[in-house]
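In this section we walk through a basic example: taking a raw amino acid sequence and producing a predicted 3D structure, encoded as discrete structure tokens. The instruction is simple. Fold the sequence below.
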Amino acid sequence: MKIIVTGGAGFVGSTLCLQLKNKYPEYEIVAFDNLRRRGSELNLVDFQKNGIAFIHGDIRNNEDLQTLGDFDVLIEASAEPSVTAGLDSEPTYVINNNLFGSINCFNACIKNDAKLIFLSTSRVYPIETIENALFNEDATKFLFKDNQEIKGISSKGISEELSLEGARSFYGTTKLSSELFIHEYAAFYGLKAAVTRFGVIAGPRQMGKTDQGVVTLWMAKHYWKQSLKYIGYGGKGKQVRDLLHVDDLVELIDFQIHNIEKFQGKVYNVGGGLQNSASLQEMTAICEKITGNKIQIDEVAETRPADLRIFITDNTKIETEIGWKPKKSVETIFKDIYLWIQENEKQLESILK
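The resulting token sequence is shown next.
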């Protein structure tokens, strides 16, 4: 089997390439990436060591995709991942990459009669709807109430039943648009595809920044004893996300590659779930415990555009229909990131510090 991973030198992409090659040494794994994100070039050394081919290319360019030759599976993990993309600047890149680039990937799959594994996002759900949900506030975090007026939100989190009506960010809109095109390609061209709306993914190899990769950012700032900020919602650090270890993501995608028929025509929410959720305050406590360092954290009361007080993934549908559920805890995620930074301190210092 020949598997192409677009965005293959990114956090999720590189982890997929390395773990799939380790499990299936007979498979040909090809990482395809434009190396736009700083730090992605560090993964090329690991690719060479592990027999993973690398092609420097851009999904926005059809000619680059044609250099891939024949293949059996394409994992589309190449998105511009920042929710603020297009909000603090004009949105051309995020639209061209996440929508038009993805369509080029779909066409390449049709040409090769190949399976598509599409990594979508929880950010397809509208901001205002989620922000208007009923919630409780306790000493360290916000949590959804159980009895909501909005269908698709409960104390378990956000399910696939939540209405998609409303604004969601340019990033979320490009991913939702791609999902809609996949339905068309499946109906009219017979594309075999698995579409998954992932929540916050975290773990080793992520080059964390304020706009994307907050878990790595939090650990890195504690590791190097630098300051952080609680931004928004009064500046108390009570906003909550559920966290999915990248290893749990790989396990699911491995299953999708080999059982694509179970996912055709369906969309699943996938995340750490309520049991693997944490507020910024709670993340701080975990980082302090692991590193032994206590850092300055400033409070910024003003909430940024497109931010969410709470996002927790309700995994009920995929757990019931597929039998998948996350295995790795929030504490494990932070410990694994800490060990990764420790082992690669010199390389990562200029990027994460």
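Looking at the output, two observations stand out. The longest strand covers residues 115-121. The chain has a mean pLDDT of 96. In the next section we compare this with other chains.
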